[in-house]
Amino acid sequence: MTSDQPAVERLRDYLQTLSPQARAMLTAELERAVLRGEDDAGSDLVLQELRRSMRAAAEPTPRVAHGARRFFIPLEPFLFEGPADHKRPGRLARASLDPIWRWIGRDLMPAEAQALTEDIERAFLAEDPAKADQLVRALHDRAVQRIKEAIAALEANEKARRRFAVQVGTPRAVDDVTTLMRILAIRDCLADLARRLPDHIRAFEHEYIDQVKGLLDGARKALQKDASQRADVCLFGLIMVSNRLAAPWQLIRIATLAAESDDVARIAGTPYAVAVDIVLNDLEYAVGELRSELKAGRPVASLLKAIHDAARGLRTEMELAVDSPWSRQLAAVRGAVSNLLSAELETTAGRVRRLLRARPANEIVPGSLLDALDVHDVEARVELVGACRHYASELAVSEVTLRTCSELTQYLETGTKILLDTLRHAEDGERPFRQSQVDAAVRFCRIILGPDYASVLAKAADVAVQGGSAERRAVRA
């Protein structure tokens, strides 16, 4: 661990050293501190990273205080696990819930929140969930009204907005609190939609589109006196639909159906145009995920497929005019993906060559092997090349992918012959290292040249080892 390593990365490394039990205990204690209103510096960051590490390890994440848990239940379909500073209309970062809850109990309505929370806790202890639900509803109603008043007081008052941001404690305080208010204001309508929507939609075709549109139209009609809430029903309702789609990009089909056209001007004029905004925002978020996964050296094939399918769907299902805002937004996404992938692809062939180069015997420590982490990292990069072959055109990396594939193919076809020759003539001390190079080459060949080629190479390595042993026995004899 170096002194210039970012603080967050050092924190993550430390939390990974803790046992699951220790992480659970620390999380529970920090949550209790948050709900007591204790504002310890850095506790929010530690709690966020604890939960992230526990989710990554598939550990159960403890929660305390029934009041806080029940209060945020209506938000569950709209939560995401990523950074709280990412703009995602209609969604909230899960990491933002704790600071928002603390703000509600400390600044927005301290006496009411405290009293109702205690009553909710008592109701659960008394095993009276109906009473608890009634109390939560009361807390929701009061929160909506108080948040409206708080947001209204920020109009044209920059100083008040800055103070509000500090009080709430999230990177996008006004947006986060406004999203909370909008969801709670129509929570019953959204809950009814959630019950009536299909649980899973493999393909968003006419049958499902008509059903979903009918449900949303009915919900909008019930709120005809409030234009802003009608728009909110579309936004949050479509996000719930997106969560249930096997291919979330297909959400745009409800917009083209509503417009009865693929023309963006006509689509933009319908209430369901927000479906396109949701898909594009999800694409932008996926770029951030891609950046993080590449940095961590994790496989990204499924993520690339999702980005590719969404980009292709947007271009084929709609007639995107070059100068339209949606077209420019999609172009920016494709450009960002192209830059990320190109930077990785351009160094892959060099990394493979450095790992597999035939070293002279005096550079090999007797009995040593290739570093397993180095092999895993290079293999992940080769897998990225293999994945990009399927999605290169839509992700704007055709040229660099073709060039990298050509370089890898040429090197693996010629370089493995040299590796086999060095393995055949290797002395006992260097043979483990030579063998580990061939084993790595087999893994890379399986990705670039196919499993048949890799199988032949593995068999050739066995023959080389046996042949070399026979030659050395003959010489000694």
Please describe the biggest sheet, giving its number of strands, its sense, and whether it closes into a barrel: 2 strands, parallel
Number of helices: 21
What is the straight-line distance between the termini?
53 Å
**H/E series, N to C?**
HHHHEEHHHHHHHHHHHHHHHHH
What percent of residues are in strands?
Answer: under 5%
Roughly how much helix do the residues carry, as a percent range? Answer: over 70%
Question: How would you describe the overall organization of this protein?
Answer:
Helix 1 packs across helix 3 and helix 18 (372-391) runs antiparallel to helix 19. The longest helix has 32 residues, at 325-356. This protein starts with 6 loop residues before the first helix and ends with a helix. The protein is mostly helical. The chain has helices at residues 7-17, 20-35, 43-56, 66-71, 97-108, 110-125, 129-152, 158-168, 173-185, 187-196, 206-222, 227-244, 252-259, 264-268, 274-296, 301-317, 325-356, 372-391, 398-424, 431-448, 451-476, and strands at 79-80, 92-93. It has a two-stranded parallel ribbon. It is 72% helix and 1% strand. Among the domains are: 202-321, no CATH class; 356-476, no CATH class.
Structure, briefly:
Among the domains are: 120 residues, no CATH class; 121 residues, no CATH class.
Describe the structure using short key phrases:
21 helices, two-stranded parallel sheet, 477 residues, disordered N terminus, mainly alpha, globular, 72% helix
Structural topology:
Layout: H1 7-17, H2 20-35, H3 43-56, H4 66-71, E1 79-80, E2 92-93, H5 97-108, H6 110-125, H7 129-152, H8 158-168, H9 173-185, H10 187-196, H11 206-222, H12 227-244, H13 252-259, H14 264-268, H15 274-296, H16 301-317, H17 325-356, H18 372-391, H19 398-424, H20 431-448, H21 451-476
Helix pairs in contact: 1-3, 2-3, 5-6, 6-7, 7-9, 10-12, 11-12, 11-13, 13-15, 15-16, 15-17, 16-18, 17-18, 17-19, 18-19, 18-20, 19-20, 19-21, 20-21
